[in-house]
Amino acid sequence: MFNSKVYDYIKNACINRSSSKLVAIGECGIDLCNYFYCVFLFSRSDCLLDDQKVALREQAVLAREFGVPIVIHCRSGKRGDAEQICLGILKDYYLSNRIWNVSTIYTATVILRIGKMRNNGSNNTLMSCFTSTIAKWTIGSKQYEVLENMPLDRILLETDAPYFKPAQFYSPAERTTPDNISMPGMAINVAFCLAAAKNIHVDEVLRASRRNTEKMYCLDL
């Protein structure tokens, strides 16, 4: 639950970045997935849209105030269009015609919308994170077109650990075992999927992801 204590914790981490090691704020955003799934993971109040809007808005303001990247989680569902809500809040409280870093962890639809924003003259640095779920995207689909057309300098790799364990790492018989979890090192699977979609060597994807990570989070890897 996002409250004043959480807000103060994040703000203090922003103020004392040298000691807190903070490099970004998030994940935060809007999740309107199936209600019962949401209640299973969180308490009922955590799923209220108004609460999510407040949490995203407050963290977006902090990210803007302290000039740090913000990592966005956005998922639409039967409860509504999270993408429009999320982008509206970011445009009002974070982008605001200034140069800011926005790391996006989105569906293909939102990546395309953000691409349009960038092509229309926005100077924001926008990164798109991909998980192993892209292995299920089929050639010719709109999602696959995103993989083919997304510039390498806008790509980051993600596992969403402990979720979305790549299918290559387990057999169907193992899916119910405690070992059925994803780990950061499995991001290599995402790199291979991106390389296949772009018809390039996986090393190109890995080098680009490293450069983008350094750029987005101001790291010296």
UniProtKB/TrEMBL annotation:
<protein>
    <submittedName>
        <fullName>Deoxyribonuclease TATDN1</fullName>
    </submittedName>
</protein>
<dbReference type="GO" id="GO:0046872">
    <property type="term" value="F:metal ion binding"/>
</dbReference>
<dbReference type="InterPro" id="IPR018228">
    <property type="entry name" value="DNase_TatD-rel_CS"/>
</dbReference>
<keyword id="KW-0378">Hydrolase</keyword>
<feature type="binding site">
    <location>
        <position position="27"/>
    </location>
    <ligand>
        <name>a divalent metal cation 1</name>
    </ligand>
</feature>
<feature type="binding site">
    <location>
        <position position="73"/>
    </location>
    <ligand>
        <name>a divalent metal cation 2</name>
    </ligand>
</feature>
<dbReference type="GO" id="GO:0016788">
    <property type="term" value="F:hydrolase activity, acting on ester bonds"/>
</dbReference>
<feature type="binding site">
    <location>
        <position position="160"/>
    </location>
    <ligand>
        <name>a divalent metal cation 1</name>
    </ligand>
</feature>
<dbReference type="Pfam" id="PF01026">
    <property type="entry name" value="TatD_DNase"/>
</dbReference>
<dbReference type="InterPro" id="IPR001130">
    <property type="entry name" value="TatD-like"/>
</dbReference>
<comment type="similarity">
    <text>Belongs to the metallo-dependent hydrolases superfamily. TatD-type hydrolase family.</text>
</comment>
<keyword id="KW-0479">Metal-binding</keyword>
<dbReference type="InterPro" id="IPR032466">
    <property type="entry name" value="Metal_Hydrolase"/>
</dbReference>
